[in-house]
Amino acid sequence: MATLIIYMTTHGCTEKATRMLMNCLNDDINIVNLDGFPDPNLSLYDRVIIGGSIHMGEIQKGLKKYCERNLDDLLTKKVGLFLCCLFNGEIAQRQFADAWPLQLRNHATAAGLFGGEITFEKMSEKEKMIVKKVAKVDQDISKLDQAAIREFAQKLAG
How many structural domains comprise the chain? Predict the structure, then answer.
């Protein structure tokens, strides 16, 4: 099955999760960072996986706009949606719901929360200050959930 993984990343966590997911799938896979290639041709793919991360409380605007702009085409594909975020439970579920259009969430074969990372060396001084104040974190954190990534891949495989 021809699969396209579309993602956007702010500090590299979603890209890392995308590569981990790619290793769990046995498909012909292409990966596109929308930041550098904003309009991939969806007609070439049977399955489209879309992933982003929560940064300052929201998913990347370009990813959200892409989904809204291409919603009709995406609804004709087998779709998987994932989100990288550090929160769990109700907060993570709310962030997931806010990230993706309702119609796309309802259509998705698989939905995943992959955990997240904080990497201070990739942040601006302003971002560091906000993370320290709001999240009360002052060192790098990696909470990428490899089990969640494998489970997501299994759901997609059917």
Answer: 1
pTM listed for this prediction: 0.88
pLDDT tens digits, 67-97: 999 999 999 999 999 999 988 899 899 999 9
Other Cβ atoms less than 10 A from the Cβ of 8: the count is 24
CATH code of 19's domain:
3.40.50.360
The 8-class DSSP code of residue 55 comes to B
Give the domain extent around 119.
2-157
The rounded distance, in Å, linking the Cα atoms of 47 and 66 is 16
> For residue 99, what are its two tokens?
């990230």
Residues 80-117, buried b or exposed e (16+ Cβ, 10 A)? bbbbbbbbeeeebeebbeebbeeebeebbbbbbbbbbb
CA atoms within 13 A on the CB side of 157: 12
Of 68, 63, 71, 66, whose CA–CA distance to 18 is shortest? 63
How far, in Å, CA of 84 to CA of 104, rounded?
A: 18
